[in-house]
Structures are given as structure tokens and as C-alpha cells.
Automatic annotation (TrEMBL):
Residues 46-111 form the Cupin type-2 domain. It comes from Herpetosiphon gulosus. This is Cupin type-2 domain-containing protein. PANTHER family: 16.7 KDA PROTEIN IN WHIE LOCUS. SUPFAM superfamilies: RmlC-like cupins (SSF51182). Gene3D superfamilies: Jelly Rolls (2.60.120.10). It holds the Pfam family Cupin_2.
Amino acid sequence: MSDRVFLAHLRDQAEFVAGDGCHLRELLHPAQQPVQIGYSLAHAYIDVGCRTADHWLEQSEVYYIIAGHGTMVLDGQAHAIEAGSYYYIPPRCSQWLRNDGEQCLEFLCIVEPPWTAAGETITE
């Protein structure tokens, strides 16, 4: 690990479809970049008319909505979200997110401790 400044750009990070179905770019992850942090940070989006699969993580998450609007369902309770909304999701909380708008629903995800495939369960 390094204790140096780390600089990068979103366009330089590989995009992939995550297990829950959103499009994701891992921005910071201590297993992938030379950073000493206790969390991972990802940029994600959901296309118009789409939603993520119902899932939960062993880790806690914070979502910050950058653009668009939609519905976030946490443990079966629906919440309207829009650009500027943010929320904390505790470990093992059932969740899914739907894009209800006419533009891409774009958001940041902070997962603490850092995201791992073993810590995510897709329930549908």
C-alpha cells in the first residue's frame, strides 16, 4: 500500500454490469488501487425504465444520487429519491433501486468495509 496521493478519472475506469444489474465503475477500492482506506467507492447508473435486482450486502452502504429520480425500496418500504438525495443502508438490508425518470439515474456508492463479491447476495 502507498500513502501517496492517488488521482484518476471516471472515464479511465472499466465499466461493467454489477450483480444487481446496475452499470458500475469502481473508483476507489483498497484491493485495486494504492489507497489505504476502509471503504470502497463506486460510480453507478441505471438506464431509463430499468431497476436493480433485489439484493443485500454484509457491509453497510451510503448512496448519493447525482442525477435523475426514482424509487429506492429498503426492507420492503419504498422511498422517492432524486438528485441530491442520500441514504445509509445498514448491513443485510434488502434493497433495490428503480429509475422512474426520463434520464439516466446516476449515483455514488460507498461500501464499508470495502465491497466484496462474497458479501453480496442477490435475492431475485
